[in-house]
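Ticket #4471: structure output looks truncated?

Reporter: J.K.
Steps to reproduce: submitted the chain below (647 residues) through the standard prediction queue, then opened the result file.
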Amino acid sequence: MERIVQTQAEERQAQRQMSIPAEQVPESVIGRALTCGGNGQHSIERVVAFFQKGPTGSAAASFMGREFGEGGKGVSIGGQDYALWFSQEGFRIAQGRSAFGPGSTLVTWVNAAVLVSKLLRNGQYAAQEKIDGAEGNEYRELAEKLWHLRQDFSDSARERNFLPTVSQHFLGKGFPDDTQEIAELLKDPASRQQIARELADFVGAYDSDPTLLRYRRIHDPQKLLADVVNLFTPREEFRAVEGFAPARASFITEEEIDQLLLRGGSYEDSKFGIYSYFVQGHNAQECAKFLREAYGEGGSCSMGYDESHGSKGIKFTRADDESGFKGYAAIQLNWNQVQKRVHELIDSGKYLNVLEKSRLSHYENSQLARRIYWFYQADPAPVKKKVLVAGGGPGGLYAAYTAARRGHQVVLCEKENELGGILKSEQALPFKYEMYQLTGIYKKLARDAGVEIRLNTEVTQEYAEKENADALIIAVGSEPLVPPIPGLNGDNVVVVNNYYREKDKVGSEVVVMGGGLAGCECAIHLAQEGKTVRLVEMRDELAPDANVRHRPLMLKQMDELGEKLIICTGHKALKVTTEGVVCQDKDGKEVLVPGGSVICALGQRSRSTVVDELRDAAPFVRVIGDAAKVSTITNAVYWGHHAALDI
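Returned output as attached by the reporter:
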């Protein structure tokens, strides 16, 4: 099958090489296309600020490559559609919906930089408003990078007092007030020089001791130092032609659609699963169904790209700076259309890149190993036993399912009127709704396996003894941590676990107490709803309990919410009032963090009292999930599965 796919790709390549080249895109159109900037926020301002300092050709080309990155745009110029595609080699442009169509013209970043410089001097690259805001935007962005660098200092870096000038304006008023103060320092030559010296000291120490930063991959201290020093370079003044307006993105290109599909489905390694299934010769209807199941319900959102998928197919919305990130174009593909495009990508050799192709055999071997494991782990238990599971959260449900599959008689008891445990609270957050739906999946698995589910039934020692089970799995979860802070029991306070039931109580100005993962996610949701949110955290860092890959992305999303989400780290809550939360800041001063509504997200603690009561209620007892130790849903499911295997 691999040879067939390769042969088809070679035939298509030969046909493309034999085709007669169309007329290339004129320079005037290329220049006009460049005025729409890259896909990031404030791209035009960054381009203007960079060229104001008269960079050399190689430096300008490198900058352009970084700024535009990899991606595409569709623009209308002179009544004609032109597709753009940015990559390391430069950017391609062609008339029509594909940047690789007839007349496709490759513009190197060296040539693009020359053209941008020429357009700026002629007043035909950016509107005057963008030119005027370029310098201020540069100060702001560098201030934010300095703030985040300081935020990710290790204990050792803080003890050694690196970046003392920045530290004086860190965790005072919270983000973005702190960064505004740092930006003002950068505008002052003397303060800027001091920051540059301090940053140089840190860079020198960091080169020999990378542990000075906790999250090293998301920072480049050396480049940050170069950018701060570069602020001393004199700036060339540019003036826009009166009434100048840039080209605007107006449609989604074919390459952008392909880029979307090259991400694969919702679960890890789904792309390999899709590829393996498609090359086995399944028909169109089967492939469409497979894609629908591989993607499921959900979506993803990043700067300028919004994708959602469900039973009807995939919807893709594009936005950029000029559109205010409100969307300038959208497409809807049903699953039959998607499977056709995936087939085309596979046939052309584009669906898997070189690295992914090298991993394909490893994926196939791991899938085989997984099938063997699941085959043997589901072996019937040598002796059928009665198993009682206390708690209907994800861990309890999966423990019950595994035990029933092995042939045991399983009874699962949930003290409330619905299953789900802590997952129930996820239903109020649109970007966590998929996780909430996990309850329905595990409930179906358990029932189909023969589990008897009893709602409104609490397992006490007396109840367990009456059931006379051979094995008891304690999965009673955790409860919100609500410390004795005055006013925390007020009518304006909602515990984050109960937000899904009490969200109507939350007004337009909210204080979220607790900067762990749950508090940060709730704050993001409330800010996305248009509320003004202030996040209070007594520590210097946010979400230390978040996944190491997820945390940097979440913090970036919080930054992008701007003034809708104000971060107040280093603030210890003293009391809650109807006007907000009175806190003690890092200097020991009492300050009011205003907000008519308060969300309590101060963490969870195991239901140890219930666990202690049930420890001796059966011959075999296992404690799993948050009942054993407050942890993740993944761990709860894992512990539940293996507890059932041990019965």
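Triage note (M.O.): checked the attachment and the full token line is present. Residues 573 and 583 are 4 Å apart (CA to CA).
Status: closed, working as intended.
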